[in-house]
Amino acid sequence: MFNWAKQQLANVAGTQEPIYGPTAIKSVALEAEKTPFTELKREDLTWKAMDSTSVETASFYLMSDSGYVALAQVIYSNVAGIRTTCQFNCKVFSREQGKPHLWCSTPLNNVELSDDKNSFYADDCAVELSEDGTHYTIKSMNDDRAVVNLKITRTSPGFQVGETGKTLYGTDLSKPWGSMRHAFWPRCVAEGTIAVKEGPIDFKGRALFAYALQGMKPHHAAATWNFVDFQGPNYSAILMEFTTPPSYGTTSVIVGGIAKDGEIITGGCTLSATHTAIKGDTENAWPEPTEVKFTWTGTTKDGKPVEAVIEGHLGERSDRVDVMAEVPGFVKKIVAGAAGTKPYIYQYHPKLPLKLKIGDEEIIEEGIVFEEATFISDPTASE
């Protein structure tokens, strides 16, 4: 009871949590032992709009045939069950080293969800899932610096790891006080434009859709993150890893999969993410990666073994995001009072090969890797 009371105080006041240990987290990897992944149905993509502290996101990562990389994202956030706020984010990375990126983050007003909760609406903004569940349309005129008009169509099934995609937090896991869930459309085609000051940018190309629900304060759920989105001519690979703070035993949870048009080749939790070389950031002491290695292992539906690896030098980072300087005010409120919380996101999008083996077949293809390394707090530091 005392731990529960301290946890409730942490939720409301932003204080750090006590050390519960690894028994207070149930990784989705336990589900994946029996069911490595589940293909998504339309109802699996409903907005939950929780009435307690949470951050819910729909994110579209775009890689255009012309070389532009961009992000379009809706964030739905609840602060301590007191206030709900929503934001539309759009980022277009410059194609020239050293030139500034376009970053627009706009508060949304008069937010509504469709009756089935599959589509999101606000003034001058709409993210709609089609009736057949095969494509999203994203439209935003909230910021005239980035007018978004996109259609994202999946070319492979969507999936979540395990049966529910959920990792649970709490000392009584039959009544968890927090959760983390991810769901993906790993391989999509994109069409449409993002109109910027210089004119419309054609985003015909490849895309990834990622849904995430952090059903608790983000800095309580995770201390660090790795995110990988590989898009090649024939294959796509996705990896998402987070490591909890010491409150939950510095536990690593990793999910992902590999897809091609029409098929999820494999999915599950038998993956790895390693920063094989770092240079360190002199401004904030985070271990900024310079070289990485990501691996996937699993089996196909018909039992063929699957192995894949992406490794190499990340090159110059695309961006370093000081989250507390750039995020909306509601996120600052969520992490208020958390000593040692200084979130930074390091972003890269190099060209690297995916080395894939399916049974006896070996495939190598080059693609674009969008990689994020996020540091929120030191996962080894005791609280």
TrEMBL record:
Superkingdom of this protein's organism: Eukaryota
GO cellular component terms given for this protein: cytoplasm
Keywords attached to this entry: Cytoplasm
Domain Svf1-like N-terminal: 55-214
InterPro entries named in the record: Ceramide-binding_SVF1, Svf1-like_C, Svf1-like_N
GO biological process, one term: response to oxidative stress
Record's subcellular location: Cytoplasm
Domain Svf1-like C-terminal per the UniProt entry, residue ranges: 216-377
Family: Belongs to the SVF1 family.
Entry protein name: Survival factor 1
Organism in which the protein naturally occurs: Cylindrodendrum hubeiense
